[in-house]
Amino acid sequence: MIKPIVAIVGRPNVGKSTLFNRIVGERISIVEDKPSITRDRIYGDAEWLGRPFILVDTGGIELDTENTIKEQMRYQAEIAIDEAEVILFVVDVRTGLTNMDRDVANFLRQSNKPVILAVNKAENYKQAEMDKYDFYELGFGEPYLISAQHGQQTGDLLDQVIDHFPDLEEDPYDDQTTKISVIGRPNVGKSSLVNMILGEERVIVSDIAGTTRDAIDTPFTHQDNNYVIIDTAGMRRKGKIGRGVEKYSVIRSLRAVDRSDVVLMVIDASEGITDQDKKIAGYAHEEGKGIIIVVNKWDLVEKNNNTMNHYIEEIRYQAGFLNYAPVTFVSALTGQRVLEVLDIVDYVSEQHSRRVKTNLLNSVIEDAVAMFQPPSDKHGKRLKIFYVTQPKVNPPLFVLFVNDAKLMHFSYKRYLENQIRKAFGFEGSPIKLITRER
Ligand code: GDP
Ligand code: GDP
Known about the structure:
438 residues, Rossmann fold, GMP Synthetase, Chain A, domain 3, seven-stranded mixed β-sheet, 14 helices, repeat, KH_dom-like_a/b, GTP binding, GTP-binding
């Protein structure tokens, strides 16, 4: 299913990131790891009344530092207008209406996207009901009083948000088709890589058109396997439009990641992984997508016997949470190793959908427990793992049935995850471990 995107906009300090965390945080995440990537997240998976959506805090989208606040806000509003289905416009009832709010409103009014006005910080504030009328001036209809910090009325707000969602749209591809998205900063060579893959004579690009999505996706066949590169047009389109547009691709990338099975994270060999890369890759990781790190422009690198190893070490250091992702070195200019990327995609997609036999799985966990005892609490009560199952694939999900879930530590979970990987691989695929009390 294709998830709508909801973008939070507003001037600094109105409570955008608090609202983001409130909405995304209330969803029980089954990936409880990697604090480093969750700290300053700006993209998250959310759900309200059974409707999943992607929430974006545009306030956290990186912009050139030389931009003024006004330019930044304009930019963030533009991104929201271009890419989101619904815009959540946040203002602060305690400060009251400011000129900056009016500026944001002016940008937003230029679009015909639905805008929901959230008047934040309304808890314990007597004049809130009165003051909210000031915000009618912005022209977005009923202002909703909320408290992002305390979670008050955010449910009513979300009722409004999902009311504006488009009808559910199913992705048109069958289970046998591997959906690939290509992410990475501008100019790392995404379009070149895609063009090189599709231009290979052993790759047969199909031109069936059907649903609206086909217009931007490119289905193709290679060695009897079916693939589709998601949102290829989005990549090819750029270039003409110039500055600014590159930022837009961030949200578009999210949607592409969301719809894909395997994500190719392309980085420029001379730049390495950037924070922006980590944020999008973090989203892919949390969404449980297969991930391959593609180091492009390898032709430009001066090499010796150890260059690749050093490179891999550096990537592992920069983005430890992707330690399961294969790294490959290509040149989209010369074509070096470009077709091999598809072999890695096949491999990762196989790992991603791999199901391990229950008895094997349990013996691996038993061995792991025998080798290194589970933690105990200060009363000496020790975690007991009764048995393990793998109810899901894509990504693999493991459920540990235990005596007391509170006794499970992050570090022990990671240890078990490593043991599972050691035994079964799952290269390129995030895996999820959850505990259930029996
Ligand atoms: P952003 O810059 O728009 O992302 O704003 P933040 O989410 O960082 O919030 C700015 C400040 O407002 C922080 O000190 C928050 O703790 C505070 N804040 C956010 N939401 C609320 C709220 O509902 N009530 C109150 N009283 N303060 C809030
Ligand atoms: P995108 O913005 O990520 O889609 O990047 P493009 O595919 O448009 O490539 C940006 C620039 O890098 C173009 O000038 C390409 O010709 C160049 N480029 C792409 N891949 C390679 C490569 O492997 N080696 C070299 N030397 N240049 C490349």
